[in-house]
Amino acid sequence: MSVAGKDRPVLYLCAPINALVEGIYEQKIPFTEIKKHGDFGLGTFDQLDGEMVMLDGKIYQITSDGHVAQMDDSALTPFACVTFYRPAAHDEINTPLNYAEFNKWIQNLLPSPNIFYAIRIDGVFSYVRVRSVPKQESYKPLVEVAKEQPVFTFENIKGTLVGFYTPTFMGSVSVPGLHLHFLSSDLQHGGHLLECQTNEIKAGIQFISSLELGLPMNLDYLTWGFQRNVGDDLDKAEK
Ligand SMILES: [Zn+2]
User: Fold this and answer.
1) Is the full-model pTM beyond 0.70?
2) Which of 38, 56, 127, 133 is most exposed by smallest CB count within 10 Å?
3) Does residue 3 lie within any of the structural domains?
4) Which pLDDT does position 6 carry in this prediction?
5) CA distance 116 to 178
6) How many whole angstroms from 181 Cα to the centroid of ligand 1?
């Protein structure tokens, strides 16, 4: 359980996104630790081995070949962003939306751009484009990895988007703006969302006004020089 407990929503990050963007892909943080801070979220696995979705306390790995596997709590991660998901607001829309309209619809559900939100969207998507990062040795910057990322597209697929909105000024800590991962309802497909078009969807939104940030106590992280402005890299790697 996070410091503030389950009653007050807290966003937990086990490491700043900067470390991942720089190519520190191994932190050996077990999900037993991550799950003390949330039952809902996203991230990746050590060696950048695919995309992670945490939904209802279950951990799913989407590998770069598109395969989905449920992982146990002994799996290790260098970056995970989680919370105990307790939505405060709900909305739904049965009119098809293209990606620009979808983004606008979500933004309209967020009363201020200056706090965090956990966002869960369930429904039928007429189109989904996702990527999943391939397993890496450390120190290859994320933007380089993203150039060769496998991309998958799906049509008329039922599933869930899991993720967060982060204020843009927090870009060294978490992916700024919307960051969503997709998992199909049949648990066969998923990945980091690049684009979607919706058919019928419903959204749950949790307002989060506290942040708990883990700083990894390992040699890679402790001795890294974070002089580079990684904002451009992050934008290319995550959008
Ligand atoms: Zn992602």
Assistant:
1) yes
2) 56
3) no
4) 53
5) 10
6) 6
